[in-house]
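Hey, can you fold this?
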Amino acid sequence: MDYTGLAQRLAEVHQFPCTYMIKLIGVTNVLLERTIRDSVDGVLPGAEFTLTCRASAKDRFSSWTLDVTVPDVESVIALYTALEPLEGLKVLL
């Protein structure tokens, strides 16, 4: 996916370093949550982040809110690139 437009918009709107929020929706799965955490650690080793989870009413899907301290635009793009292909992930915002 081409994130050029997002990179330009991020540079206009945010002052880096900053805390950036990413929303994820996927199948309820402990492994998916662990994979999200591992992906963040892989892109930004040692970065401070919180990952909160909320399950759907029937517990089939979960939504996660990732708040992570990012040093620059490239780190945000790298996070999206790392998270996008995760198995079981349905929506990445």
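Oh, and this one too while you're at it.
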Amino acid sequence: MRIAEIMTSNVHLVRPEETLQYAASLMAEWDIAFLPVADATGLVGTLTDRDIILRAVAPGFDAETTRVSDIMTTNITYCYDDEEADGVKANMNSLHLRRLAVLDRQDRLAGVVSQSDFLRHGI
């Protein structure tokens, strides 16, 4: 089974210049914990609820003025939508990742795959 068959393709994303307040409100509204960060060039980072807590809230940053780009992860681990799901799952497990950005072969954001996607499909 390929990643494209199990991933979430209707993905919410944020731009680097948006505030953490905005990103957190999107996460709350859509009950998600992972947001790809993209600009006009494509995927530039990722932001998780854990990033917000550990890199912004704990140090006392102001969510209304702190930008996503200030705390996002820029060393992005991703997979391609045509990769085999079991191989991607093994890679995610070895890296202790719960979610992963999915790109197409033109390096455009195609979706997000999570550990729960694998479980839902018996992988």
